[in-house]
User: Fold these one by one.
Assistant:
Number 1:
Amino acid sequence: MRLSRYFMPILKENPKEAEIVSHRLMLRTGMIRQQSQGIYSWLPLGKRVLDKVNKIIREEQNRSGAIELLMPTLQTAELWQESGRYDAYGKEMLRIKDRQDRPMLYGPTNEEMITDIFRSYVKSYKDLPLNLYHIQLKFRDEIRPRFGTMRSREFMMKDAYSFDLTQEGAVIAYNKMFTAYLRTFDRLGLRAIPMRADTGPIGGELSHEFIILADTGESEVFCHKDFVNFDIPGEDTNFDDAAGLKGIFDKWTSVYAATSEMHDEAAFNAIPEGERLSARGIEVGHIFYFGTKYSEPMGAKVQGPDGKEHAVHMGSYGIGPTRLVPAIIEASHDENGIIWPASVAPFDVVVINMKSGDQACDDACETVYAALSKAGKDVLLDDRDDRAGTKFATADLIGLPVQIIVGPRSIAGGEVEVKDRKTGARETMTVEAAIKRLA
Ligand code: ATP
Ligand code: MG
Ligand code: MG
Ligand code: MG
């Protein structure tokens, strides 16, 4: 992508309304635009990051055996009356009437709808286990939307729903998602800690929130320091091995971790003082096992091996992609801007032309741009007619992992500079060597 033809509306000034660094940087880099309170457009640069986050989420959901579909954002009130949540959900639910005066709502979550899909098709235990997910917009009329897309009213969620004949089966499904989540957050460059959590309006018995430690987080959390060093399950994890998955779950729940709602002061104080971590955190994912809470009232039943009808045991599993993007920035930035982990960077590399219009610089930039693009890299070429200093500042601000700097002096000797955004380390090398390094 040539920056001169791209749409990346960088702001010169720090936006006053932004209270936390991720919000400020997302506005400054032109990743998002607020359209009305708590409702955002994702501009091209932001959309690229969001797509990369969703790609990783999708790959790990698929790896664990979950199957993707897509449900609508608008739902009928009827479905929610069946589960009893239409009245219970309260003011967070945006209620709408269609032209026939039928009560509708913009879905804040999809347990009812997926249960309706399930009951319409699945009749036998032989078709279980089943886990269906989608990545879709949700609406919750948050009382205090803030921090940009961290807590917005319209936001994206990956929500998965598992169906099993028995509680034992549902626990295996839970452990699969638990493991998939550890892998997902790790690939996003984050250390997320699973914490025992309250089940809230989703209801149920077993629940973990996945929390990123950050000073700007809205949750108060307590955990053992050991979490920082726990191994992440590998790519070769066998999701059909129930015992192996239980081993992962047991390990990751073997030491204390809880949000303030579930906090047990005595258990926490039993940890030696130097190993206690009392911090703030951002909830980026949440998983629940809730048994037959929806299947029972909504009649989602299958025939078991005993020939009888059984209400299925369900779980639901959410991740917030539009919250993850700012969470990644909270975890990875410096005074000059964002530092994207390579896995979610909007482009892999920026080629900075220090002197657009200078023939040697232009030619070298085109050579590098063409070669890296051909090698399948996402390359941003800063070919704007602007001062070198402005281009350097932009490159640091938008935080792509690598910068290739092409200047008139070094290119006369056939050389360019390669800068690592994270460490700031610079290396001078030939154009060919730079291409080889990054391709
Ligand atoms: P919170 O405690 O922050 O209000 P929640 O517990 O209500 O979140 P869940 O119902 O557990 O949220 O939804 C699953 C995931 O969806 C959350 O872990 C979070 O990543 C994301 N999410 C929920 N609400 C929002 C929001 N208002 N803006 C952005 N992401 C959200
Ligand atoms: Mg909430
Ligand atoms: Mg919560
Ligand atoms: Mg939650």
Number 2:
Amino acid sequence: MSTVTSTLTGTVLMEDATTGISLSVHDGVATVRYDQPNSPVNTLNTRVGPVFEQIFARIEQDASIVGAMLVSGKADTWIAGADIDELRRVTTPMEGEALSRGGQQLLNRLAAMSKPFIAAIHGAALGGGLEIALACRYRIATDHPKTILALPEVQLGLLPGAGGTQRLPRTVGLQAALDMILTGKNIRAKKAWQMGIVHELVHPSILLEVVAKRVHALARGESTPVRARAHGASAVLLEDNAIGRKIVFRQARETVLKKTRGQYPAPLAAIEAIQAGYLHGQEAGLLEEARSFGDLAVSEVSRELVSIFFATTALKKDNGLPEGEHADPVRVRKIGVLGAGFMGAGIATVAVQAGTIVRMKDASLERVAAGSCAVRDVLRERVKRRQLTRLQMDDTLALVGSTIDYSGFANVDLVIEAVFEDLAVKHEVLREVEAVAPRAIFASNTSTIPIRDIATAAGRPDQVVGMHFFSPVHKMPLLEVIVTPETSAQTTATVVAYGKQIGKTVIVVRDGPGFYVNRILAPYINESGKLLDEGASIDAVDEALVAFGFPVGPITLLDEVGLDIAGKSGPIMAAAFGERMRPSATLQRVIESGRLGRKAKRGFYRYDEQGKRQGVDQGVYALTPASGSRITVAVEEMQRRTVLPMLNEAVRCLEDGIIRSPRDGDIGAVFGIGFPPFRGGPFRFLDALGAATVVAQLDALNARYPGRYEPAALLRAMAASGARFHP
Ligand code: 3H9
């Protein structure tokens, strides 16, 4: 039971064991308490609607009740929205529309109650949860980090379906509402108060007392504290007249289209519903909202995004060990980071933000100073965005210490190395760490060197593991943990638990060249390069893959990662996997020409002094085997030739036991590479295409380009049996 609700007393009037909803009354104030049984969170399913209906009626009829509050029985969640599991069982648009209408009508009833009803919010109020709060007459939230408010439906390919598209704009203004609904982002309690979503902020320990007082005050018709609703002057001007609103809606549509390229229908549908409400009134807006909710609930995009939600929550519970195995993770309080470059500093940044003490070591004072500045810069940016106070930044920075020797390493629990990609250098630092840090796990952030090769120098190989972070570390959500046959269960459990602690989604993969993410990336990048070999245009290749749904094209990605880095991994992958991993001639020649990519302001593209991209470097074409002569390749052909080998390689990784499941393969690709989320990941996309279709296309390509497109044996077998990767 949460600290907030434990002080509740009163006479219980109703109790529904199935839903966990109860009604009690004390001193004229009714408390509606929701504590869904057998669930860590409260969700809204079709069973709770009728119970709430009954309770609302009872509150209205009971003369001894002056008003009511809605509280949660969970420690960290108020209400997490509609039950997503129930939503994914919706099979027709009509069914989805009916669900939405049901929710809207219930909340209309709540909003129309004659007695004051207050949302007493402690913990996450998300989706339908926030929609309930918005239908309450008054909202009081706790000023607690766990109290967050959001309408995250677009992240599931949906729109708020219980009146959120109508009530939020009327509560916070059009532009603020559009920003929340179109991004689905979390709003902290204080910000929610500043925006005017909640009327008051209180400490959790006095929430119930304050709410009870306000119920009485509202019932007596007294005025309550005025909300801090904050609008910029220009925003007020723009949205307070019809012409201004037209401009706001037009800009919102343009921004959405630019960002989603039309691949995600939900944000546009949300704009339609909001606009319908402004133009034709709330009921028209609600009808539009429900109609779209029905369509979106059965859309492929929503199905895939929901699958990502469930895969991510399943990974939160995964200890990283084989099914049924258990090991107690060591609590990581202090870590050492070797190398204060871009990756090292990035790792230090996420570690200190999670409260870990960090010792960052590099060879010179200049280098460690630069690393510390990089940590500070990320934190400063967060202060600028008001995600952190100056005081919190100072406290966080105090956790990073830097050194050019191993001082302060004796009591570290974990050392993560991000030094130069050279086996001899890795061996040297491993031996040094084992000598100075007697109980530390040694984790390598290598992206190219097999972990077992690094572990050959170890006296404690059971404590050697890979922790492959993605760049920039503070933004990229994935962590690939690489285990060797000698890595102990406790080492794996510890780094997996620590990865989650620093906010990463963690997949555990078996050791092998490129591990998982870089291995499936390699044939995709190489085949893109081979299109250039044949004379395809650099920007045409990039555009084709952006049109497929990747955030950037493969050639842009090369420039961003750095051509020297790509040049290092290419030969390793080719040596391990042969023809299908051999880098293109164009890539090799571009590297030989001294182009290093964006960091050197010269790659496949040209960059100005500030690093802003200027366009294709036409000089690259002279380096291709096609010697400047150009061909046009159809977009679908370019997509097929690059994406199919990525899918095929993902299946090989599953076959080879590199990844544990299609789920991990999907999450690794979506969070590590930016594989289009609306396609669900390589395995879900394979299921959508059908193994037989993919095998036929790969066979056809393999006939044209021998050795590069041979379908994985497992894929052939699945094509023959008609099996799927996901049930
Ligand atoms: C919506 O509201 C539509 C409406 O507008 C209209 C309706 C008509 N449903 O993440 P965790 C489960 S759409 C079902 O590990 P945390 C989750 O799967 C909804 N299940 O905990 C997991 O299950 P299990 C909009 C849900 O503390 C368990 O709870 N709402 C739901 O790290 C624990 O979850 C959202 O998109 C749900 N709504 O984070 C919110 N929520 O134990 C989605 C959670 O079997 N949820 N579960 O593995 C979240 O963002 C996070 O779960 C939350 C807790 C912040 C609440």
